[in-house]
Amino acid sequence: MPTAEKELAIAEFAKELKGATAVIVSHNNGLNAADVTELRKLMRDKGLVFKVVKNTLAARAATAVGIEGLDKYLSGPSTIAISKDNIVAPAKVLSDFAKTHEKLVIVGGVIEGKQVSPADVETFASLPSKEELVAMLLRTINGPASGLARVIQAIVDKKTAAEGAATPAPVAAAAPAAAPAPAADPEAPAAE
């Protein structure tokens, strides 16, 4: 490539790297095109960028945006996963993919400005995702509140049941009283 084209490629990749919180390098040792396409789709579904870039261009772009130490991992057929907001997602996707595709080898990267080893990447991969952490937090907050709501409802139910037992049953409406029989007239002749 002519120098102008290289500079353009470096500038374009630098745009991808700018503001990245996680940049993880893996070696693509013989993955076929279908596997790489599958991995790209998995990355895209998580909002991540996945690139195959020449090592020297990647190293220059990383240096241009202030990501130090990435060049240490750039050798051989490298692929780069980039995230701007989720440090766990690229590690998790690469780690899960590498479990079923042994030709993909994680070699390290830079997460939040610090160099990370393959073991560090695996540690990040084992962490819960942002969505899982939010769900855990909500369960933690919601658990005591729902327990309190159940206790209050039980008290209300108990009081309602106690009031129902203490109140006498409503008296059925009595049949109208029969008219009193006429009193016998003492002077009237007795019936025979």
Any overview of this molecule?
The structure is a single chain. With 192 residues, this protein is of the alpha+beta class. The chain has two domains: 3-127, Ribosomal protein L10, N-terminal RNA-binding domain (Alpha-Beta Plaits), CATH 3.30.70; 128-162. Helix content is 50%, strand content 15%. The chain contains six helices and five strands, in the order H-E-H-E-H-E-H-E-E-H-H. The chain has helices spanning 3-17, 33-45, 55-64, 89-100, 118-126, 130-166, and strands at residues 22-28, 49-52, 78-83, 104-111, 114-116. Strands 2-3-1-4-5 form a five-stranded antiparallel beta sheet. The radius of gyration is 39 Å and the shape is elongated. The mean pLDDT is 82.
